[in-house]
């Protein structure tokens, strides 16, 4: 053993024993008695979104026919709602540029922000969330979480390639403080509270 090795070995033997320390707990800041559905609705409205509670896809479709009578191209990403532009026929994101209504089932919603979590599994083609003129989001009212802290506990970021929180329609304000909806994305966002089958 060289002198250097002996010195290093002596140092190692005399170092204080280290124990693994647990990461500090991060609170989720949950509040008692929060009505998640009412909170979600209120915050969605603040973000210029709309909502409807429905009992069936057929009920939702009737509302959509009344609210969007001019919608011609409907692309649904969920098997629950049939559109006339199959998502499986999309070869390029720009093929969705003519979509009037994009129909998506969200994984869950965040009450404090009135927003939904969408991944590539929900969107199939990410551009549907941004190129559709109007978005229809199907959301199970039992899949609401209180805030962003609780939302992050629900995410499986290692199991996805893409994910985003979507809140209300696209909104842009210019230097003159003129608010424009739909300048860089959907012109409207409507959430239908419908339990998953």
From TrEMBL:
SUPFAM superfamilies: NagB/RpiA/CoA transferase-like (SSF100950)
Domain LUD span(s) in chain numbering: 94-193
Pfam families, sorted: LUD_dom
Stored InterPro entries: FTHF_cligase-like_sf (IPR024185), LUD_dom (IPR003741), NagB/RpiA_transferase-like (IPR037171)
Annotated PANTHER family: LACTATE UTILIZATION PROTEIN C (PTHR43682:SF1)
Protein name (record): LUD domain-containing protein
């Amino acid at each position: 053993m060289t002198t250097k090795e002996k010195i290093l070995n002596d140092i190692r033997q005399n170092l204080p024993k280290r124990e693994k320390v647990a990461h500090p707990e991060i609170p989720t800041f949950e509040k008692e008695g929060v009505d998640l559905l009412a909170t979600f609705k209120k915050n969605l409205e603040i973000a210029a979104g709309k909502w409807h509670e429905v009992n069936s896809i057929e009920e939702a479709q009737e509302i959509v026919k009344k609210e969007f009578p001019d919608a011609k191209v409907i692309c649904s990403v969920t098997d629950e709602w049939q559109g006339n532009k199959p998502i499986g026929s999309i070869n390029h994101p720009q093929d969705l540029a003519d979509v009037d209504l994009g129909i998506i089932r969200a994984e869950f919603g965040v009450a404090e922000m009135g927003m939904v979590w969408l991944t590539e599994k929900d969107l199939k083609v990410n551009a549907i969330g941004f190129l559709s003129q109007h978005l229809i989001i199907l959301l199970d009212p039992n899949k609401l979480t209180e805030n962003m802290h609780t939302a992050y506990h629900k995410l499986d970021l290692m199991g996805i390639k893409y994910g985003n929180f979507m809140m209300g329609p696209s909104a842009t304000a210019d230097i003159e403080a003129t608010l424009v909806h739909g300048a860089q994305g959907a012109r409207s966002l409507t959430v239908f509270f419908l339990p998953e089958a």
